[in-house]
Design a protein that fits this description.
With 208 residues, this protein is mostly helical. It contains eight helices and no strands. Helix 2 (19-40) runs parallel beside helix 5, helix 2 runs antiparallel to helix 6 (138-159) and helix 3 packs across helix 6 (138-159). The structure holds zinc ion (2 copies). Residues 87, 91, 156, 159-160, 180, 184 line the site of one zinc ion.
Amino acid sequence: MDRYRRAFRQKVIPRYYRGSLHVASFVGIQSGAVILVGSKVHWNWEAVLIVGLSLAYATTFTYFLHRFLLHRKVPGLGWAHKMHHWHHTFYQSNSMEYEELDDVYMLLMPPWIQILYYLLYLPALALVAGLVFGSEVTLPIVFGLTLWYGIYELVHWMEHLPSGTGPLRFRPFQRLRAHHAIHHSSLKDKANFGIVEPSWDYILGTKK
Ligand SMILES: [Zn+2]
Ligand SMILES: [Zn+2]
């Protein structure tokens, strides 16, 4: 595995890349966005309910995007398929853990996706949500989806930690990791597309 991973890193990771800067930009943008949007929300039980519903929407969206866009060659989205293919090629069910910080190149979304998420996807969604449901729901929805981005990245990262470290000392996280490890096996195009939680795999029969 060592030789395979060394060759993979040399082939795929650009020379200028620094995993430490990637992690710092993710944490910086993410915590800034959560604090900024969270401070604008008028918090009451309705806002909390809308945040919950937004998270339910987000996990559904992520399942379908993962299953039908990242595991298929969709015209115009070949780059997304290729990046996800790198993730599956570097991390396999018997080698789930990252070893060096630069290995997050094949794990975290690139910073430009995070920036597009906040500058394009969220404003567009906020606009549509505001038109459909009224302006008072917009900020809780944006907060829920802001929170989701961080939850998604952190849970997926946790699933690729070395066994028995950090949250992987606890049973629920071990189960989530085992669920994701099956997705990193030869069943990758067929099973366990839920990354943060497996509900859609149970509902649609893709749970293995
Ligand atoms: Zn993974
Ligand atoms: Zn996948």
